[in-house]
Amino acid sequence: MSRIAGRFARVEPRRRVRDLVLGLLSDLPRKNCWSIAEWAGQASPHGMQHLLGWAKWDADTVRDDVREYVLEHLHDDDAVLFVDETGDVKKGTHTVGVQRQYTGTAGRIENAQVAVYLVYAGRRGHAAIDRELYLPRSWTCDPDRCRAAGLGEDTVFATKPELAARMIGRFLDAGHRVGWVAGDEVYGGNPKLRAALEERQVGYVLAVACSAEVTTGAGEFRADVLAVKVPKWAWLKLSAGAGGKGHRFYDWAVIDLAEPRLGSHQLLIRRNRTTGELAYYRCWSPAAVPLATLVRVAGSRWRVEETFQSGKGLAGLDEHQLRRFTSWSRWVTLAMLAHAFLAVVRADEHARHSAPDGLIPLTCNEIQRLFTTLVVRPVHGAAHRLGWSDWRRRHQARAQASHYRRKAANQT
Fold first, then answer.
1. In the chain, what are the domain boundaries?
2. Pairing assessment for the beta strands 108-121 and 99-103 based on DSSP bridges
3. CATH topology for 57-320?
């Protein structure tokens, strides 16, 4: 917390932000301003709501602090940057960025809010270091709606690959280097993102659709057509990395592409050894690299999925109940900090102490459980709990009375 303390001019928001981050790390079944304020011993949620909505502090500078904290503790010369989006299912139409859209969280089209994240993944651990909220055209084409949600007058539509390029640019402009960027088909199918990475001399392994057109020395082909032409001897059995049940072996093949731009352009193909299902990746690097390197990058996608899972399950990344953009950016930034804390503690524990025989190494889940139980569990008396019960019922009574008045006014 001392890393971000200087971002708050007064002691009150410093104390509240500490309580909020500890609340995000707690074992509360539901994390929002109400539940965290009660857990922290505050008399009402007003202080937490003020911290997220109106207090004077810049979430982007705290975001940069999170990035530097992660890189200081999890730095790896072979690290990979992952770009990916995740959605939070929401009700109503007033929450910033919400519309009916596909979200992988639900696996279908839902009323949801979608954000793109940048995840830093190395051998010591992985954590999100940047975020951008995806704003559909239904929002950017409606200035009044944007203004009501706290968005600036200059808000314009940006695709998910454009948001990814923006975050990668911030990372590189801050003086950091990384050898590889990875992402799914949304990003691999975007030529502007690929060109931007090549211009910055950053290698990539980006998934593409089976219908993606690529150019070889023999002409232009669909990716799935080229896969049929790969001879049997060209497939190599390689591990995509260790999973929960051991190494994940696939068959891999790589095809050199004929591109006018400098560097090594390749199409990487992965084949499931059981089902025969194929996956395709556009790859580029400033100089040729071994197939094993491309496989390592492609096979480490599970890290971004685990980051989202633990960020939501352990740090409340998706549990905000906030409508305005400022509040959203502050909540997710502090949730990223809380999750980064768990990732850093895990990495340090693994480096200092090997797990005894018969025990797996400490996980983020177990570290959160121990930290909450042994270090920060608050104890409040009956008077505090009863006071919160009164406050909730009073608030609900006001809301009910207001609803009845509006309903009566509409009927007259």
1. 57-320, 380-411
2. antiparallel
3. Transposase Inhibitor Protein From Tn5; Chain A, domain 1 (3.90.350)
